[in-house]
Amino acid sequence: MENGSRTEQIELGIVSDAKVGDWVLYATDRAVRRIDEIEAREIIELLEDNYQPVDIKALPLKYKRIIYKIRTEGQKNRKTEELKKNEIENFRTNSNKKNDKLSTTGYSILTNSDLEYLLNLKGSNNLEALYSEANVMRKDRLEDFVCIHGIIEFSNFCKNNCLYCGIRADAKINRYRMSEVEIFRAAKFAVEQEGYKLIVLQSGEDYSYSDNDLIKIIRKIKEHLRVFIFISMGERSKRFYRAAFEGGASGSLFRFETSNPKLYRKMHPGHSLDERLRSLRDQIEIGYYIASGGLIGLPGQTISDLADDLLLVRKLGIPMLSAGPWIESAQSPLSKIKDQKSKIKNIEGDFDQSSDLLPTDYSLLSNDDRLRLTLNYIAAARLLMPEIKIPVTTALETLDPASGRHKGLLAGANALMFNITPEKYRADYNLYDHKYIEREKVWQKYGLFKGEESYEMLEERLQI
Ligand code: 5AD
Which residue among 52, 168, 431, 453 is least crowded, i.e. fewest CB within 10 A of its CB? Predict the structure, then answer.
């Protein structure tokens, strides 16, 4: 059996009658179904890269040092993985720990300055070297495992006024709220008709659904459908998170947005990073499979902040990164920066620029530069945390609708998000402008398999 240029031993799984020379679609070393050659080439194209060998000699010295460090110390680190796990465990359970000093020692071979360097990298030769290094790491650690999430955005009501967000409380938009029946129907369609094995239930912070309402929905889905449920509903109480977990939610998509406490306070009026991290730790402690991370390129954020975000993900031992570029929304006060080219301090009066926060002119960056920063971030994350799961976010696809997804995967990402919100509501869930909503049929065709087998594969892979 062939897999592109490689020939590998795989378990035949459910395609037990396959013969040598047949093309089979397989996931996690197990065959899923037989396919024809045209289909096989189509799949190979999705993940295969066309990186040319990069002339290492031509790369800057600092870059060579970092790569050397990853390659050599990375090997050593594999051996001390157990040790590190203990450290992470201690950190997680030590809830008395006052603040999150982002110390890099003991958690990472890459320092803030190394990461900063990678995030800033430009030039086609350098970038190709960076992405191919990350892509090789992905293949080495995760093979071609691509996880597919379906996201149901069930309400765009929100009590919060986050400065960057298009569905903030003050936004003048069409609001909708799906009923329990509609949510269940959307989940049922996704699971039974389309083969989704992992769905995310996302909304603004909408307390018109009581804790019990939400738990009831989770229970109902779990009772009737063979699917993993991730929730993304904001900062509810620890009691809610525990009950939802017991009701059948196994994952939580909960970003800390930024690890810089000052920036956090500015972006989230009335809220603090401490609160956010407390909730995140509660969820970790309860046992949720966590997807977390931050926004990339918030006005006022520095490259060093982004490096700290990655180090925080690492330090918390988060198994799945959720991070995407900030994109303007006409509904959010931050978008005025671009229009007026004004200083950040003019936004919403109290949004003053503290002296130790270097303003970035990110909001004035071209689309290409934003795309580069996001891809560099994905690659840096992969190199820092070889086994982390990284979904390509919708925001990245919005920056580059034609090939953002492919580029994300080739820069080290290994998971995809599809929007499965019912058509009639989809256009109203606009976290930012021009949100990418087209679905790529080819992934649906090959990435989703019906049947128990693929549910078990996911269970095994994510260990949930
Ligand atoms: N651009 C990109 N991402 C955004 N989010 C909210 N607003 C924007 C925006 N303008 C992200 C936040 C939140 C997630 C659900 O959507 O990071 O956690």
Answer: 52
Residue 447 amino acid letter: G
Which tops the pLDDT comparison, 247 or 124? 247
- Evaluate whether 107 touches 315 at the Cβ level (below 8 Å): yes
114 vs 24, higher pLDDT: 114
Give the Cα-Cα-Cα angle 389, 391, 394 (nearest 5 degrees): 165
d(CA 431, ligand 1 centre) in Å: 6
Quick one: tokens of 84?
Answer: 């590190």
8 A C-beta contact, residue 162 and residue 265: no
* Contact (CB, 8 A) for 291 and 344: no
pLDDT of residue 337: 59
pLDDT at 451 over 60: yes
322 alpha carbon – ligand 1 mean position (Å): 10
75: which 2 tokens?
A: 């090997």
The rounded Å distance from CA 176 to ligand 1 centre is 18
Ligand 1 interacting residues, C-beta cut-off 6 A: 164-166, 255, 257, 295, 324, 326-327, 329, 395, 431-432
Ligand 1 pocket test target in 149, 164, 373 with most atoms within 8 Å of CB: 164
Specify the ligand 1 atom closest to the Cα of 164: 10
Query: What's at 243, amino acid-wise?
Result: A
